[in-house]
Amino acid sequence: MLTKNGTGKYLTKEFHEKFALGVRDRDLLTAEEIVWAEIPSDMGYGKENPDTFKIQSQPIDPFTGSTKTIDIRARKECGDGGE
Asked: What does the pLDDT read at residue 83?
């Protein structure tokens, strides 16, 4: 049986949860957890988190309660997501 001390850590649920959490935001993990989960140094600073690029639009009428979530990466003026 594989253990966490050897290569078996890659098969554990804990490893996959910590890795996914660290890739989205490495500030949520301690330095030891980052080393254990083997998160690359260029990951975890926000660009892998899709919520980083979403903003809530503000309606013109202050009495309107509807807002819309906009992904700032897809803009018509840049040739993305539009006609």
From this structure: 43
